[in-house]
Amino acid sequence: MRETLARLRHGTLNADFVGRRKRWYIISAVVLVVCLLGILIRGLDLGIEFKGGADFQVTTQVTSDSVEQYRAAVLDSGVEQLEDLSVLTIGDSTVRIQTRSLEVDEVILVRQAIADQAGVSAEDVTYNLIGASWGGQITQKGLLALVVFIVLVMIVIAIYFRDWKTSVAAIAGVFHDLIVTVGVYALIGFTVTPATLIGVLTILGYSLYDTMVVFDKVRENVKGLSGRRTTYTDETNRALNQVIVRSLNTTIIGILPVIALLVAGVFVLGTGPLKDLSLAMAVGMAVGAYSSIFIASSLLVEMKEREPAMIEHRRRLAHRAERAAMRKHHGSDTTETSGAEEGGGVAVLTERDEAVTDEPAASGRPERTRADFDEERRQPRRVPRSRRKK
User: Fold this and answer.
1) 91 and 147 in one domain?
2) Whole-prediction pTM value?
3) 154 and 191 in one domain?
4) Per-residue DSSP letters for 179-238?
5) One digit per residue, pLDDT tens: the chain, 390 residues?
């Protein structure tokens, strides 16, 4: 264990991340299916900003029991179907209550209940009606921002890496993170507010940052790949082993304060935008680190290894490996024939000969194979007339 941690710290870990990509695909597929089912079956608990409702605010002295006191007062007002009401405090002098859309007589009852609890007149309780159309505008603007963000990012990544496949792999990881984050909201039942939307858009940049670190290391490792005896998969796997400790450190350091905000928002404040923002960021940062290492990199390898140049490179490596296995099987890199049997002729198969057989000759002559060399060795060597015994 200590040795593994030391190798992880020095970037010399030799874990086969890419070779096990089918396992990561299965894990992600299961998680995505669960999240999609949660979105489709349970649905999202949209806040008042998206579905519309009534908003009440009153100036009063805020205490530790203010939220529960005003919640109880509104529920006892005589208005029905207020189970999803939201009560939160703003600073130390304002209480905010949000409910579903109310009729005129229901608004009067709720305002009076809030005023009685605060010890003020009903006119001192401000009331605002939030229509669902305003929430629709927020959703539309958020989706537009998402589309513009993705298009611009794909263009920038393609220009930087000079390869559109890196853009596709990176954006696939982003969509993976988005679906998981939204699915967690649906499964947990947290209210989706504008703060949630801000958090979701924020994690996109973090996820892409982590992915670009991995891809940049891959690009550095695959330079001059055609002259080496490693494949694109091997170099990508080596890059992941080199940067995983950096990814883990960045994620842990970034997510710890976000978890602190989440705990404060859930257990201290109980409600408000803080918990909505921190949940989206905590889930997105954790899933983003996972997708950068296990999903985006694996997808990039899948696409790059299907290129004709990579296929030809793997064919040459396999051919060389086969030659090396044959030489090892015969016990020597040099094959000599007996002088008594083949007229003393000697034939040597070197790396140069192997390179000749790996690729067709540039002049268009037929490719020389192992059989050709064996046939030449079987032919008796001709002795020049001047050296024959008289």
Assistant:
1) no
2) 0.70
3) yes
4) HHHHHHHHHHTPEE-HHHHHHHHHHHHHHHHHHHHHHHHHHHHTTTGGGSS--HHHHHHH
5) 666 666 656 556 677 888 888 999 999 999 999 999 999 988 887 777 777 788 888 888 888 788 888 888 888 888 888 877 878 777 778 888 888 888 888 888 888 888 888 888 888 888 887 776 666 777 787 788 888 888 998 999 999 988 899 999 999 999 999 999 989 888 887 778 778 888 888 888 888 888 888 899 888 888 877 777 888 888 888 888 888 888 888 888 888 888 888 887 777 666 667 777 888 888 888 998 899 889 999 999 999 888 888 888 888 888 887 887 887 777 654 444 444 344 444 444 444 444 444 444 444 444 555 555 556 666 665 655 655 554
Cβ neighbour number for residue 70 with a 10 Å cutoff: 24
DSSP 344: T
- Residue 92 lies in domain: 53-130
- How crowded is the C-beta side of 173, counted as CA atoms within 13 Å? 37
In which element (H, E) is residue 56 found? strand 53-59
Residues 141 and 118 in one domain: no
Same structural domain, 11 and 103:
no
298 with 178, same domain: the answer is yes
For residues 83 and 38, membership in a common domain is answered with no
Kindly state whether residue 376 falls inside one of the protein's structural domains: no
